[in-house]
Automatic annotation (TrEMBL):
Residues spanning the membrane: 12-30, 104-129, 136-160, 172-192, 236-263, 283-302
Occurrences of domain ABC transmembrane type-1 (ranges): 100-301
Compartment(s) where it occurs, according to its Swiss-Prot or TrEMBL record: Cell membrane
GO cellular component, one term: plasma membrane
Main location: membrane
CDD domains documented for this protein: TM_PBP2 (cd06261)
Originating organism: Thalassospira xiamenensis M-5 = DSM 17429
UniProt protein name: ABC transporter inner membrane protein
PANTHER family per record: DIPEPTIDE TRANSPORT SYSTEM PERMEASE PROTEIN DPPB-RELATED (PTHR43163)
Family: Belongs to the binding-protein-dependent transport system permease family.
Membrane topology value: Multi-pass membrane protein
């Protein structure tokens, strides 16, 4: 256990260094003048001229050599100082703290929904392989995984927001604003986890210990819950770690479409405004979130499989 935690901490440091360096380099080499973008964001396009952009450039040190700016940023990062937003002037860590809370609500809700939908549907299909239900679930899973999240999001907005007017399509004012974004993310996650669970459950159902449990006279429910679900869950939980990439990517897209005030939405706006500290801060937060979620998945695997606990 201690080895796992130490490994994850080292990975977190590596992710922070790599993501921070890449985001700094990408923002530097983007075409266009960042001072003009920032001046437009502060004072509006109508008030912007060369004098204002020069003032912004000198104020923020954008006229400094790239190496000086990079070393200065790395020094601040070592002191856990992410700087201030170039547009709003607010501390980056304060902005990220607010936005990360919304994103965690969305990510956790989508993750829980995907666990409720995908593994349950896949387990039933694995117990009845080749049935009509199994074939229908295959078509549904392939269809949901093939459709990009932004298409699914727009479809839900048109049906449940615009046509039926059941749910809001933008912003955040309560639980109802979580429904459409979280379902959009959850269906993509559930599509693949249902197929992994289906194959795992089909293998478990043909295992000798599963058949022997039936011969002992246990009810179908007891056999499935005691000997089926737990053994079939391990590959699903392992696969969920890989799906964290889809979740982090999906958060950026879905938050932007639904105008959800999370960290993905903030990242897109920071890139457009050339707000380098905000881009670096949000990228670091998303990289750290990815490592954290994978650590949770590893701990769940240790909990499910005693062999992994002994090896750890």
């Amino acid at each position: 256990m201690k080895g796992l935690i130490a490994t994850r901490l080292m990975q977190l440091v590596a992710v922070i260094l790599i993501v921070g360096t890449l985001s700094f380099a990408l923002m530097y080499f983007l075409p266009g003048d960042p001072a003009l973008r920032i001046a437009a964001g502060r004072y509006g396009p109508d008030m912007m001229d060369n004098a204002i952009s020069d003032m912004v450039r000198a104020e923020l040190g954008l006229d400094q050599p790239i190496l000086v700016r990079f070393l200065s940023w790395m020094g601040d990062l070592v002191r856990f100082d992410l700087g201030h937003s170039l547009v709003t002037g607010a501390p980056v860590i304060h902005e990220i703290g607010l936005q990360l809370g919304y994103t965690l609500w969305l990510a956790v809700t989508a993750f829980v929904l995907s666990l409720v939908i995908g593994p349950v549907a896949g387990a039933i299909a694995g117990l009845f392989p080749g049935s009509v239900y199994d074939r229908v679930m295959l078509l549904v899973a392939v269809g949901l995984r093939a459709v990009p999240p932004f298409v699914l999001a727009i479809l839900f907005m048109m049906v449940f927001g615009v046509t039926l007017r059941w749910l809001p399509t933008a912003g955040f004012g309560g639980w109802e604003n979580l429904v459409l974004p979280s379902v959009t993310l959850a269906l993509g996650l559930a599509a693949m986890s249902s197929r992994v669970m289906r194959d795992a459950m089909m293998g478990v159902a043909s295992a000798p210990y599963f058949i022997h449990a039936r011969y002992k006279g246990l009810s179908d429910r007891a056999v499935v819950m005691r000997h089926g679900v737990r053994n079939a869950s391990l590959p699903v939980v392992t696969y969920l770690g890989l799906q964290m990439v889809y979740l982090v990517e999906g958060v950026v897209v879905v938050e932007s479409i639904f105008a959800f005030p999370g960290i993905g939405h903030a990242l897109v706006h920071a890139i457009i405004a050339r707000d380098v500290p905000m881009v670096q801060g949000t990228a670091l937060a998303m990289g750290g979130l990815f490592v954290l979620l994978n650590s949770v998945v590893d701990l769940m695997c240790l909990r499910l499989d005693p062999r992994l606990r002994r090896a750890a």
